[in-house]
TrEMBL record:
Organism phylogeny: Eukaryota, Metazoa, Chordata, Craniata, Vertebrata
Official protein name in the record: mannosyl-oligosaccharide 1,2-alpha-mannosidase
Catalytic activity of the protein: N(4)-(alpha-D-Man-(1->2)-alpha-D-Man-(1->2)-alpha-D-Man-(1->3)-[alpha-D-Man-(1->2)-alpha-D-Man-(1->3)-[alpha-D-Man-(1->2)-alpha-D-Man-(1->6)]-alpha-D-Man-(1->6)]-beta-D-Man-(1->4)-beta-D-GlcNAc-(1->4)-beta-D-GlcNAc)-L-asparaginyl-[protein] (N-glucan mannose isomer 9A1,2,3B1,2,3) + 4 H2O = N(4)-(alpha-D-Man-(1->3)-[alpha-D-Man-(1->3)-[alpha-D-Man-(1->6)]-alpha-D-Man-(1->6)]-beta-D-Man-(1->4)-beta-D-GlcNAc-(1->4)-beta-D-GlcNAc)-L-asparaginyl-[protein] (N-glucan mannose isomer 5A1,2) + 4 beta-D-mannose; N(4)-(alpha-D-Man-(1->2)-alpha-D-Man-(1->2)-alpha-D-Man-(1->3)-[alpha-D-Man-(1->3)-[alpha-D-Man-(1->2)-alpha-D-Man-(1->6)]-alpha-D-Man-(1->6)]-beta-D-Man-(1->4)-beta-D-GlcNAc-(1->4)-beta-D-GlcNAc)-L-asparaginyl-[protein] (N-glucan mannose isomer 8A1,2,3B1,3) + 3 H2O = N(4)-(alpha-D-Man-(1->3)-[alpha-D-Man-(1->3)-[alpha-D-Man-(1->6)]-alpha-D-Man-(1->6)]-beta-D-Man-(1->4)-beta-D-GlcNAc-(1->4)-beta-D-GlcNAc)-L-asparaginyl-[protein] (N-glucan mannose isomer 5A1,2) + 3 beta-D-mannose
GO MF terms, alphabetically ordered: mannosyl-oligosaccharide 1,2-alpha-mannosidase activity; metal ion binding
Record keywords: Calcium, Disulfide bond, Hydrolase, Metal-binding
Cofactor: Ca(2+)
Pathway the protein acts in: Protein modification; protein glycosylation
Length: 68
């Protein structure tokens, strides 16, 4: 997107030419922004962290009670 977006740097070892790559990774929107939204949300009832855990893909998974 010429007017904005998020990307990475093509070669971080070349500080004189920090050319951006023409690619935005899908995990940035799917995971990183989801975590930021959850971290900074003022809604305490949004999702209970006592009842759910997040996997590496930022999907909430229910915590099942242990069976003894």
């Amino acid at each position: 997107v010429p007017s904005g977006g998020y990307t990475s740097i093509g070669n971080v070892r070349d500080p004189l030419n920090p050319a951006p790559r023409d690619k935005m990774e899908s995990f940035f929107l799917g995971e990183t922004l989801k975590y930021l939204f959850l971290l900074f949300s003022d809604d305490n009832e949004l999702i209970s962290l006592d009842k759910y855990v997040f996997n590496t893909e930022a999907h909430p998974l229910p915590i099942w009670p242990s069976t003894s």
